[in-house]
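Budget justification, computational time. The allocation requested in the original proposal was used primarily to generate structure tokens for proteins on the priority list. As evidence of use, we reproduce two of the resulting records. The first is shown immediately below.
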Amino acid sequence: MGHQTDLKGLSRRGLLKGAASLPLASVLANPALAHVAASAATDISIQTQAQDLPVRASLSLPDVTPAPAVILIHEWWGLNDQIKAVGAELAKLGYVALSIDLYGGEVATDPQTATKLMGAVTEDAGVDTVKSWINWLRQNPACNGKVAAMGWCFGGGWSLETAIEAPVDASIIYYGRVTAPVERLSKITGPVLGHFATKDQFINIPMVDGFKASMEAAGKPLTVHMYDADHAFANPTSARYDDEDAALSWQRTVDFLAEHLGDA
């Protein structure tokens, strides 16, 4: 993690090769490498099932299919190159990776725009979107029928919402809002993994403790890891990035997916 790469003079082919050989954090921390990794994905679109909304996503396929699938849900910035690059990494690990877009193609680069875009996502449209994509994956011959959801921050909250509203085999939350009541958590059908930070003032310790208590009351399997870090510690472009905790949380994520989706 934190490896530095001199990209001056590299061709696109060289960038592709470099992105493929570097640790994930190094790719995510470098906009050029993240863009190249993201550009290998295929943009797709569907109409949602309940509201007939046009929605889009970025699909990365592994070398061997059918394979288990992972839906990735973006931070408040939107579906940017970073999220797509994580999808490319999951495809390298053998998963069908679908990075979905809840912002209708818009991507924020400043907090004001991100707040506006995040606030415009209605619960009904968001649920319709995630459920429609999961159904699409389960019917896709590239997917073996197993699907997990994972997300960060805004997307972390939506990863939990996906676990509640759509049957998924597992879900992963990176410092996302976790305030759903017991009766809603009772609808979850698969295990949940949560990565949270002790210094996070947004998704704070009382919220996480309440989530653990509610999941226990609902009788649902939950694994929570707390890191001596701050919100967005797994994002290499964040000022709060922590390379050691990011690496540890990613390894735990990979292990969790392998355990609950089967070795990819």
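The second record produced under the same allocation is shown here.
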Amino acid sequence: MSKAPNPCCVPSRLRAAQLDESRAASAGRMRVNHGSVEGMVRLDGGVFLMGNESDRAVPGDGEGPVRKVMLDAFFIDARAVTNEQFAEFVKASGYQTESERLGWSFVFEGHIPANRRAELVAARVPGVSWWCRVNGASWQHPEGPDSNVDQRGSYPVTQVSWNDANAYAAWAGKRLPTEAEWEYAARGGLEQKTFPWGDELTPNGQHLCNVWQGEFPLIDLAEDGFAGPAPVDAFPGNGYGLFNMTGNTWEWCSDWFDRTYHESASRLNPVGPPNGPVKVMKGGSFLCHDSYCNRYRVAARTSNTPDSATTNIGFRCVRDL
């Protein structure tokens, strides 16, 4: 009797059902096309190679396998949503962010005034002690009540949860990008490159994004010019004219996060799994450093609960044609 084929080569009813479900979800995905396209870039879509299987991939994040994905055309914000833009939304709608309603949010310890750090020792987050729970931290006061965004109108709005970002997008007549749309946009037309500009982090010694230099989390040399968030267009745009697609702030995507779902999901306008506890974030932030978080690559991915907000999470929007 011949040996049974390896299970990985055998069709699975579960995977077949998942693919059918994924195709239906992709076909029935939300389309929004009534918001202004001012400040947006039209991308024609098409086929691209999504994901990463190199040794730079973070084990367990589900960056691979590399797969061909096809997308319809869409518009995407050239820049992340700014404090100024978010303020317009709040003024027009009266919206209160989740951090404002809860009365606190997470702040990077190094950005808390030195005279207040001692009192916040007990507020450190176990396992990631550089994060502190700070009362009064919100999008208007990102590092706590003694901070403000008065001189940061062109900086990315932070301290916004996925729910907050989704509310803004709906108000603007737009939506949050799918993970596939975000990655396609971030690649800027380059195929399977590590960053939006190529494979070297600092080609010819030039810093092209805002990430951590030095010894994390103690010493930030700020060699790229910033020891925190930077203006939304502080660095050159990619091949599609999109700014700060890596580094600066993480950006929320619409998809629920799953490490393996995409292995048997639709390759046409994929929208991620139907539910889950955490949402996808892409792009890395000013706190990313190769020593512990090499996720400022275009294929990299991470997640957070949709009610979470920090000083290094922002977003940008997309719109259908």
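A brief technical remark on that second record: The first helix runs from residue 13 to 27.
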